């Protein structure tokens, strides 16, 4: 090693100049470039990429609320660059670099993308890990569909975090590992700008019609990129280093830079003002991607209840085929109340219990809480019905359009939790569809008597009249169980109230509506008068005031007899009812509307004049009173109900997917390569003794090559041993001795027993293990993914000692003659 420069680092795969093996490998070994520390040029490249990528990340500010996206985006960008530089310093392959990126993403994602939810604002927890996993996959969907400025869901900042990290990793790897190999090629320098350019374009596409500092960012981006390409050594016209330092050339570069900057600012800024397209013609993805269906843009279905009973009472709306006695046709489930209307939850207020309307295909997802009853195949043919809400039975699993609506399947939106579907283009005469559906099984009263309501989160209800809260407490009486209290309210409304649609033929007037004033009027009149709209609304408000989740469902209840194949549904079949979820069973229907229509003459239908007691409304609480919970029990006798309680959260599946895919990408190739190496060893051990001995040397050389040492493609065993000894001095003596022993065994011409071959195999395996132990952990891991199965030149020319032994025998025979 006397001829080796002291500054040269000897590593596997590199032969230092002046060594004994230098003559044999000239032209074979590439020039060695130390991975660390990085040259100053690479740090400048990384700084330029960071600034350009930061300009691209600013584009996300057009759609996001606040400046939290800068912490997520710039933090992800810095972490990505750190992973890329560390990958070069530690000589990681692509797989290990990818796994390192996933690890860093998971560790720091909580602090950068979801600090408000993270433990102590920095530590990850199950919620943040699930959130950043979902945000990394579906964050783009929220960007282009939700209304701006975006501040929810909590994982919304994951997209700039992921985008910045990916651009940082790729750009850093290109800057420190790929670009220095041929820095004089200008195209390679330009390719380094691809990542920041893509990030800039992503900010534009995911933004809004109103750009975020478009002119300033665009000019700055172009100016920095052009100046870097012009000044970077090796990226210009290829002038040599000596010429580049002359005062004349430097002066020309400075003048050119000033002119370029001035032209970019004046021309670019002027063009941005004069030739920039109008704001409404700016192309952004949110203008071409269909946003989520917002039912709040349409009138509440319950608000049009009286239209069916008055104007469309005898109108044939549609024909339903496949119904059974007792089936109800549902239109929509309303679970949000603001003192004026019961409405369907919109995207901004939707919860897991209320669900959201999503774009679906022919097959529809099922609800989280339902006990399957009987199946139906129902066909609907529209005649006089005209609305977006799709009439259906139960919870459909498949919906196929026909008739005039056959080509509008992309307009279907479905809410799995409520079982309601809409066609955004609307239904009209001539449209039809067929659905495969499952009804909700109705448990027995005995079962429900001891079952608590399910812990379902619904959007809040507000502005409940005090009289409704007071009447709810009055109607429940001494009942303590959830079903007992709900049945008591239902029975009281049915027996003390009267039904009237406010028609001229009705014996008593009944005002339409279900706002707070109409609810107060319902309970201040003697007797109570209303129809399904008022009674269902009142029952749902009473249930919600007691802490029970309840929703109002509007639909149709046609008379169906046994064996009837089809029924004509008219406007007078309209109805409304209330559903409350029970733990382990699903949503149970309640019908609080009375059947009696004739009001006794001695009853005064005018409202009372005496003031009603002012009862303070209790605050909304998701927790039931202790007295309701302690007496409630669940029947554990049904094994099926036990199994229904085991629900794996969705974030667990996504976390398993995020972790499982990288692990599979690591483990599967490792198992395949390990299997190939074992087959290679078995093949070389087989055969005669001299063949097995030659195979031991071939196996050792391949192991050295897989560890990263340079092995000549065509050289004798002694030459190969000398070259490897120069790279790994500790094994020089052993390798030389092993090479000599192998040559003697293979070319001696004598028969070789398996004991001698096994001894050579043991020596080669010991030498390979020693060489592997001399390397670092990362180098050993890389060797696991390398596979080499080439025999040396001598082994290829003389694969066995049989030829030599045959020649020796021939010579002895000739001498004997």
UniProtKB/TrEMBL annotation:
Keyword annotations of the record: Membrane, Transmembrane, Transmembrane helix
Record bears the keyword Membrane: yes
Residue segments, region Disordered: 591-641
Keyword Membrane: yes
UniProt cross-references to SUPFAM superfamilies, sorted A to Z: Cysteine proteinases
Sequence intervals crossing the membrane: 43-63, 69-90, 102-123, 154-178, 185-206, 212-231, 254-275, 651-676
Domain of life of the source: Bacteria
Cross-referenced Pfam families: Transglut_core
InterPro entries, A to Z: Bact_TGase-like, Papain-like_cys_pep_sf, Transglutaminase-like
Domain Transglutaminase-like: 524-594
Protein name: Transglutaminase superfamily protein
Organism (species): Plantibacter flavus
Lineage: Bacteria, Bacillati, Actinomycetota, Actinomycetes, Micrococcales
């Amino acid at each position: 090693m006397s001829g080796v420069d002291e500054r040269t680092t000897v590593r596997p795969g590199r032969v230092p100049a002046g060594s004994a093996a230098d003559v044999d490998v000239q032209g074979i070994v590439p020039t060695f470039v130390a991975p660390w520390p990085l040259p100053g040029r690479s740090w400048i490249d990384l700084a330029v990429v960071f600034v350009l990528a930061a300009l691209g990340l600013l584009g996300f500010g057009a759609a996001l609320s606040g400046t939290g996206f800068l912490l997520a985006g710039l933090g992800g960008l810095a972490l990505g660059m750190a992973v890329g530089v560390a990958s070069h310093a530690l000589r990681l392959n692509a797989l290990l670099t990818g796994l390192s990126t996933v690890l860093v993403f998971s560790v720091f994602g909580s602090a950068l993308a979801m600090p408000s939810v993270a433990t102590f604002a920095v530590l990850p927890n199950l919620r943040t890990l699930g959130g950043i996993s979902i945000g990394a996959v579906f964050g783009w969907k929220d960007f282009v569909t939700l209304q701006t400025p975006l501040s929810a869901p909590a994982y919304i900042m994951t997209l700039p975090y992921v985008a910045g990290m990916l651009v940082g990793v790729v750009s850093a790897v290109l800057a420190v590992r790929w670009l220095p190999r041929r820095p004089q090629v200008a195209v390679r320098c330009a390719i380094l700008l691809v990542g920041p350019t893509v990030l800039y374009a992503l900010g534009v596409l995911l933004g809004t019609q109103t750009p975020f500092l478009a002119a300033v960012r665009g000019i700055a981006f172009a100016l920095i990129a052009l100046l870097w390409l012009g000044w970077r050594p090796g990226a210009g016209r290829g002038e040599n280093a000596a010429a580049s330092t002359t005062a004349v050339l430097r002066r020309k570069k400075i003048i050119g830079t000033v002119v370029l900057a001035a032209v970019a600012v004046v021309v670019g800024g002027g063009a941005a003002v004069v030739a920039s397209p109008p704001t409404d013609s700016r192309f952004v993805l949110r203008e071409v991607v269909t946003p989520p269906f917002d039912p709040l843009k349409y009138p509440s279905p319950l608000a049009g209840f009286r239209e069916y009973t008055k104007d469309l009472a005898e109108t044939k709306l549609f024909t339903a085929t496949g119904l059974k006695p007792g089936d109800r046709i549902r239109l929509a489930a309303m679970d949000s109340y603001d003192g004026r209307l019961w409405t369907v939850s919109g995207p901004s207020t939707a919860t897991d219990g209320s669900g959201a309307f999503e774009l679906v295909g022919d097959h529809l997802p099922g609800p989280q809480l339902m006990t399957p009853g009987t199946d139906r195949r129902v066909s609907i043919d529209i005649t006089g019905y005209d609305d977006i809400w799709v009439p259906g039975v139960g919870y459909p699993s498949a919906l196929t359009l026909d008739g005039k609506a056959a080509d509008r399947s992309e307009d279907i939106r479905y809410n799995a939790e409520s079982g309601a579907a809409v066609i955004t283009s609307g239904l009209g005469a001539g449209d039809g569809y067929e659905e495969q559906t499952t009804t909700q099984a109705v448990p027995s009263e005995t079962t429900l008597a001891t079952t608590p309501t399910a812990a379902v989160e619904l959007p809040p209800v507000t502005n409940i009249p005090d009289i409704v809260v007071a009447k709810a407490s009055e109607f429940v009486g001494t009942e303590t169980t959830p079903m007992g209290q709900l049945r008591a309210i239902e029975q009281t409304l049915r027996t003390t109230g009267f039904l009237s649609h406010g028609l001229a033929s009705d014996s008593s007037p009944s005002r339409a509506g279900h706002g707070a004033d109409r609810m107060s009027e319902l309970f201040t009149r003697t007797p109570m008068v209303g129809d399904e709209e008022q009674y269902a609304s009142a029952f749902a408000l009473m249930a919600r005031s007691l802490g029970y989740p309840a929703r109002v469902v509007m639909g149709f209840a046609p008379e169906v007899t046994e064996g009837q194949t089809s029924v004509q549904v008219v406007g007078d079949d309209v109805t409304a009812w209330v559903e409350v979820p029970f733990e382990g069973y699903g949503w149970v229907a309640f019908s609080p509307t009375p059947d009696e229509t004739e009001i006794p003459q001695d009853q005064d239908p005018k409202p009372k004049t005496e003031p009603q007691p002012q009862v303070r409304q209790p605050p909304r609480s998701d927790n039931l009173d202790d007295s309701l919970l302690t007496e409630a029990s669940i029947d554990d006798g049904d094994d099926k109900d036990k199994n229904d309680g085991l629900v794996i959260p969705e974030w667990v599946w996504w976390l398993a997917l995020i972790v499982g895919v990288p692990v599979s990408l690591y483990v599967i190739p490792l198992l395949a390569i390990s299997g190939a190496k074992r087959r290679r060893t078995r093949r070389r051990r087989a055969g005669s003794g001299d063949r097995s001995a030659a195979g031991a040397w071939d196996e050792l050389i391949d192991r050295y090559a897989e560890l990263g040492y340079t092995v000549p493609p065509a050289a004798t065993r002694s030459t190969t041993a000398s070259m490897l000894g120069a790279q790994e001095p500790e094994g020089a003596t052993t390798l030389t001795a092993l090479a000599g022993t192998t040559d003697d065994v293979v070319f001696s011409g004598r028969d070789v027993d398996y004991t001698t071959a096994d001894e050579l195999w043991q020596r080669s395996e010991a030498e390979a293990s020693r060489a592997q132990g001399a390397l670092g952990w990362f180098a050993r891991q890389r060797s696991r993914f390398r596979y080499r199965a080439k025999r040396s030149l001598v082994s290829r020319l003389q694969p066995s000692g049989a030829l030599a032994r045959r020649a020796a025998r021939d010579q002895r025979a000739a001498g004997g003659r």
